[in-house]
Each structure stands twice: as C-alpha cells, then as structure tokens.
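Sorry to interrupt, but I need a hand with the structure work. It will help me judge whether the discrete encoding reads sensibly. Write everything out right here, beneath this request:
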Amino acid sequence: MQRLRREVEPREAGLDPKTLARLDAYLARQVDEGRLPGYLLSLARGGRVAHLTTYGQRDREAGLPVETDTVWRVYSMTKPVTSVAALILIEEGKLSLADPVSRHLPEFAEPRVYESGSGADVRTRPAEGPILVRHLMTHTSGLTFGFYHDHPVDALYRDAGLENSVRPGATLAQTCAEYARLPLQFEPGSQWNYSVSTNVLGRIVEVVSGQDLDTFFAERILGPLGMTDAGFQVGPEQAGRLAELYGEQEDGSIARVPGLPLRGGRPRFLSGSGGLAATARDYHRFAEFLRRRGELDGVRVLSAESVDLMTTNQLPGGVDIHTHGSAFHRQPGNVGVGFGLGVSVVIDPAVTEYPSSAGTFGWTGAATTIFWVDPRRDLTVQFMTQVRRRSSFSVYPELRRLVHEAAS
C-alpha cells in the first residue's frame, strides 16, 4: 500500500500559500457545518504534489478520519478510464470511433427514436443512422439516465427497473441488452445528453478484447500505471480504509446511505460508467498519465495523439455542451465547456461559470469527487469526498475559483 505525499513546497511550485489556506478553510467549514463528512484535496504542479490536505472523517459513525490512503468510490470518474480502454483498442486496430455499436453489440442494430407521447402511448420511429462508438464516448448517442425525471424516455428507463442504471443482480451484458430495447431520446449525434453510454462502451471493450472489464482494466491500465488500490472491489486489506457513503437529507444534513457493494467480492455488474474505487494516489497517477499525454514513469499506455484527441472538444462545430445539450443540460455551468472522449474540456474560459484556462479537462463523480488537469498551468487537481447531493449546493465553483487564484 502506497500513499500520496507532498513532494514540494507550494511557493516552489508557484502556488500562493495564503490562497491555499483560504481554500482549506472554506472546505473545512463545509465539514464543520455538516455538508461533507470529510475530504482530501491535492494540487500538483509539473507532476509534483505541492498541496495535500485531509480533513474530517471517512466514517463518522466509527470516528475514523480521512487519511491519504483512504479508498474512495469515484463513480463517474470511472468514465475516463473506460474511454482510455476503448482508445487502447482503437490504437490496436480492433475498434474504431466510426464503428456502429451494432457491429459489436447486435442488439443495437435497429435503434428507434422517441417522437411523442408518454408511458404506454410513446410513439417512436426508426433512427436515421446507427449509434456509433464516437457517440458513446461523447454522450451524443441518444441514450439517457432513468433518474433525470425530465423526459418520457427516462421514465421508460425507470419503468424498466433502470433508475439506477442497472437491474439488481444483472450483469453488464444483460443491462446493455435492456438499454437496447428502449427508444433513444434523440437522433444519434444530434444532441449531448449525459447517459449510460459509457456502460455500453465498457461492454464493447469486453466483446472486442475477449476479457471481462475488470480484467482488461487491471492488465492494460491500472497495473501498468501503478494504481495499486484501484478496482471494482476492495479486498480485506482495503476494506477498513474505504470511505463510507453519505447522502444529503431534505434538511441539508447528511446521513449514511448504501453505496456500491465493494466489500462483497467481485460485483456481477462491472460498470464502466461508475464502478471503480481508488485512493487519491491511484487517481493522481491516472490524471498525471493524461497530463503527460499517455505515459507515466516510462510506461506508455496510449499515444500522445490519442490523449490529445480524448482531451479536445469533439462536439459538432466546436460548440459547447450548453448549445448542443438536451434541455436538461442547458445550464449555466455548461457554457463555454465542450466535451471530448470521456472528459469535459474548457473551450472558452471567458464565458465559463468559473475561472479556468482553455484546454482544461476533467470530470466529476456522483459522490462529489472531481479531478481536472490544466495543461496551460501544468496543474493537476483532485478533490475526494463521499456525499451524494440532492440540492443545488456545490463546492465545485469555489474550489475551482480558489485553485485558479492560487495558481495564477
């Protein structure tokens, strides 16, 4: 077991200690006021960790503190890892961004698109074109999530038992077959809608590689990058270090809620969308691998060109998510932000909701985790905590603002 450690003083890395102190105070206040159970924050410049803070508890009931070796459920921060898996297969010539999904998953051969109605009265039409692998990686497939409560198609997901993306006890293959039976929300490629697409991409990785997703991850990504505590399950040595999951209650307080059953052995459902757990050291290494354009500690997992493609806006015409997004995603936070192959990408920092640099890329997780890489400032940032929010409160804007100020 290895821990993340600070490697250089903030001033030596060009970070302002006073601003970092304000950032730490802001985050600690969220814990003290009961909005977060605890957290870990790290900032690295040029690959060297210059700021590392832990505060609060990984398990409030047991009184166990957050430590640098705490294991976190990273949820949707799994998605960039699945995108890397697909890009590995693309580099090997076994997969293409232009492949129809049905070439690998025949159940998607005849997609239908929503036209009108709701429930049993939903009317659909044949899609004008196939869902492509590119659409899965850019979330423009027409698939959706059942928990949105925003469109008749997401209601069909709930009716099918897919509000949490998977039927209890189902495998990834069985779950993707369920998705294929449901209509698309829109024509493939025509809009951006964050969705179960990356689960389908994970299943394609399995079919094309001939390996289960956890095996492919371990052999081709996690192992080579030295992500020694990352995976779809936690072993006996890790179990006591796993942060418990909390959920925001109606009164704004937080209470313990069930999380991914990581301690119960290998899960039946290997979610490419959100199944991984990892320590801060693990995810720091993954983010650094992306910052270094595909290589880490002399081990190359992807070509620089593939990482550049992944971290460049892929939305048609270079537009942002706000412009290309479905109605649910036309929100202020998506102005000036595009999407690559599994990560968001800042394309116009002059209009974003938070200060940033053009080309900054990253993603978040459902338990309020986030990472980003700012290539212009040579900066890698991660924030780990474990609380699922139900309100609009977010630590992200102030976190981003103060990090940007500290690194300016």
The first strand starts at residue 38 and ends at 45. Residues 354 and 397 are 6 Å apart (CA to CA). Residues 17-32 form the longest helix (16 residues).
